[in-house]
Write a structure and sequence with these properties.
3-stranded antiparallel beta sheet; DNA-binding; 67% helix; 244 residues; homodimer; globular; Four Helix Bundle (Hemerythrin (Met), subunit A)
DNA sequence: CTCTAGAAGATTGTCAACAATCTACGAAAG
DNA sequence: CTTTCGTAGATTGTTGACAATCTTCTAGAG
C-alpha cells in the first residue's frame, strides 16, 4: 500500500486522493480521527506530506482541524449539502451570465464542454451513479470555466469535489435519476448560452439545481422529508433567490 | 524580529500575518519570491511552519505556488478585485436573504453587528482609511454570520481578507470615501433586515457594492477609466445580476 | 460511589539534516 | 553571434528525531 511518486502530482495531493477515496468507499467514516503517524506508516511516507494533505482536505471542508488535537473526518449534515447547492446556484449563475456576455460559444473551450456533455449519454456512464455524477459535475465545471472567473470557478470546483463525498456520507441514493431529463436540461442550457439567451440559461440552471436537490431529498433516508422542505435553505433553492 | 508563541494562534498563522503585513506595508511586492529558508531565518523559526503558512496564503490567493519552484507574491489585476466584488455581491446577497428569512433581528449576534457598525462612526477610525476599511468589512462579516451559512461566510471572509491587500497592491486610494453616505447605506441595510424587508435589504447591498466599486474605480491610478467600465465584470456589478 | 489530581502514553508541533529538483551561469558547438 | 549542453549553486521536498501538548488511566480524597 505504498505510493509511487507519479509525475505531475505531489505527494500531499496523493494523500488527499487516498483519504478522499477512503471516505468514499466507507473505510473512513465521519468522526474518525486522522492520525498523521498512522497514515504515514500505511502509505510508506513520512508525516510531512501527510500533514500537508490533511490541511488541504481541511480547506475543502472534508476534515475538521482542532489545534493540537488532530483532525477528524467531517460529519456533514443534510443542511451542509443544501448549502453547497445554494452556493452553486448563486456562483454558477454568475459564471454563466458572465460567460454569455463574453460570447464564448465560438471559443474552442465551448466544444470541450460539449464533449463532456456527450459523456453523459454513454450507457456505460449512465450505468454507474458515481460515474454519472462525476461526468455531470465535470461538464458543469467546463461551462463555468468559460467565464474566465478563476476565483468563482475555484469555489465551484471545490463544491464539486465535496458533493460525491457528502452524498456518500449522508447515505443519499442517487439512483433513480431521470437521465434523459437531466441531459435535456443541459442541452437547453448549452443552447441558451450559444444563442445568448441569458434569461433562458439562468432558468435552465435554476431548473437543474431544483431537480437535483429534489432528487437528493427524495433519496434521503432520514425520512423527515416535510422537515427538510421546511428548512430555510430549501426555501432558498425553491423560491426567492431566483427572482430578487 | 523573532516570534513569541502567543497562545491561541499557531506559528503558521503568525507567518501568514507577517507576510500579509509585509505585503500591506510594501516590503513585499507582487512577483517577489518567498524563500522558505530566508523567511524562517528572519522569523527565527524553522522551515516547517513557514511552509505551512505559505500554503495558507496560497489558499487565499495572496501568493501563487509553482511545483518545486517555490512561491511568489500574487500580482492581482484590477479585474481580480472586481471579481472579488462580484463574489461578494452574489454570496452576500444569498447570506442576507437567508438571515432575513431566519428572523435574526432578535438574536444577540445582531447587536454585535450593530456595535461593529458604530465603530464606523468613530472619528479616529474615520481618520485612517485602512482602519475604516477593516471596520467596514468586519461589520459586513458580522451581518453575513447571522445567516449561519458557514461555507458561504467562509468564502466571504476570505474575500474580505484579500481586499485590503489587493487595494494596496493595485495602488488604489480609498481616501475620498463619503463616510456619511457609507454609514447611511449600512443603516438602511440593518433597518431592512430588522423589519424583514428582503427587497430593500438587497437593494441596500447592491447600492453598497456599486458605490464601493465606483469609488475604487475613480481612485485607480491606471487611468483608463473608460476601459475599466467596459469590462464585463463591471457590467456585472452595474447591471444584470441584480435583476435576472 | 463520585470527583479531582497526577503520571504515563499517545499525538501533534517543530526542528535540522538530507535528497531531489530547479535555476543560472558559462563553455563549447554550430 | 546564437544556441545547446552541462555543471555548480540555490531552493524546495522529504525524512526522522525531539519538544510540547493533549488524552487517558489510575489513585486518592471527599
Amino acid at each position: 500500500m505504498s505510493l509511487e511518486p507519479l509525475p505531475g502530482i505531489s505527494t500531499a495531493e496523493m494523500v488527499v486522493q487516498r483519504i478522499r477515496d477512503a471516505i468514499l468507499e466507507g473505510t473512513l467514516r465521519p468522526g474518525d480521527r486522522l492520525i498523521e503517524a498512522d497514515i504515514a506508516a500505511e502509505l510508506g511516507i513520512s508525516r510531512g506530506p501527510v500533514r500537508e494533505g490533511i490541511r488541504l482536505l481541511a480547506a475543502e471542508a472534508l476534515v475538521v482541524l482542532r489545534r493540537n488535537r488532530g483532525a477528524v473526518v467531517a460529519s456533514p449534515t443534510f443542511e451542509d449539502i443544501l448549502e453547497v447547492y445554494v452556493v452553486r446556484k448563486g456562483l454558477g449563475s454568475l459564471a454563466l451570465q458572465h460567460a454569455i456576455s463574453l460570447d464564448v460559444a465560438t471559443a474552442p473551450e465551448f466544444d470541450d464542454a460539449l464533449v463532456l456533455l456527450d459523456r453523459l449519454r454513454d450507457p456505460e456512464v449512465q450505468g454507474d451513479p458515481l460515474l454519472m455524477m462525476d461526468a455531470d459535475l465535470a461538464f458543469q465545471s467546463a461551462l463555468f470555466d468559460l467565464s474566465g472567473l478563476e476565483r468563482i470557478t475555484a469555489v465551484l470546483d471545490q463544491t464539486a469535489r465535496d458533493i460525491p463525498v457528502f452524498v456518500r456520507v449522508l447515505g443519499i441514493t442517487y439512483d433513480s435519476v431521470d437521465h434523459a431529463a437531466l441531459i435535456e436540461r443541459h442541452d437547453h442550457l448549452v443552447e441558451a448560452i450559444r444563442t445568448h439567451h441569458r434569461d433562458a440559461a439562468l432558468r435552465a440552471w435554476d431548473d437543474h439545481i431544483r431537480s437535483t436537490v429534489g432528487e437528493f431529498s427524495r433519496g434521503y433516508p432520514d425520512a423527515q422529508i416535510e422537515r427538510i422542505f421546511d428548512l430555510p435553505l430549501m426555501h432558498h433553492i425553491l423560491d426567492y433567490s431566483s427572482q430578487p
